[in-house]
Amino acid sequence: MPKVENVPEYFVEAHNLSKIYSSGKIEVAALRDINLAVKEGTFCGITGTSGSGKSTLMNLLGGLDTPTSGSIKVQGKVISELNSDELALYRRFEVGMIFQSFNLIASYSAMENVAFPLLFADVPKAERTRRAEELLEKVGLLARKNHRPSELSGGEQQRVAIARALINNPKLLLADEPTGNLDSKTSLQIVQTLSDLNKNHGLTIIMISHEEDLLNEFADDIIHLRDGKFVDNKEF
User: Could you tell me where the beta strands, DSSP code E, fall in the chain?
Assistant: First the structure.
């Protein structure tokens, strides 16, 4: 099970993790004392109803937000203690993220969208092109490399987003409702793509989804969240 307390040497660990949002005198606990441990090479699914804390947990693991209390460790690095510059480097090179909305640049081709993060790493154009084409081939879109997002289907756009998330060779991929805007057939294809990356390339994946059937088919472990806390399957 991925919920393990005080176990060292896990790829992703969270201990007593809480996130509280304040608005005036009102406090909302999005997460409360979460403990999480995920082994390297695992496809871990997280599910729960809207408002259960799934996206908050994903944002904390991805370094997009900081916890109110508790700690997060990824590959032995305590990311919850990093400053803003260090978090920016973590997001750029150590973790890839994909979201429900594809967030592609409309005026760029598929290849240019995938290669875009490499601009900030001063990678030469020829190398950017080579790596982008390699990843587009991996997700089955090399033949569509010159097409802009408006010329691609929703599933194709999400596969471009997956390729872009992998361009800096992260070992951890966080997927936040990646099938939320897709039909059931395309959703299955997208999660199959993630599963292939996990099995064939050892990529550690944490995916949140309200589509538990998809997680049951592909994930190694599934965690249920309710009201900011993990609950056992029998309680869910």
Answer: 12-23, 26-38, 43-47, 69-74, 77-78, 95-98, 172-176, 204-208, 221-226, 229-231
- DSSP class of 43: E
Question: Could you read off the pLDDT of 67-99 as tens digits, one per residue?
Answer: 999 999 999 889 989 999 999 999 988 999 999
d(CA 56, CA 18): 10
Which region among 29-33, 56-60, 118-122 has the lowest average model confidence (pLDDT)? 118-122
Percentages helix, strand, coil for the chain (3-state, rounded to 5) are: 40, 25, 35
Instruction: Say how many Å lie between the first and final Cα of the chain, rounded.
Output: 16
CA distance 180 to 189: 13
Look up residue 14 and give its two tokens: 């969270």
Query: Closest Cα partner for 87 from 71, 117, 65, 103?
Result: 65
Helix axes 154-165, 184-201, angle to 10 degrees: 20
Contacts of 121 (CB under 8 A, 6+ apart): 92, 93, 168
What SS3 state is found at 2?
coil
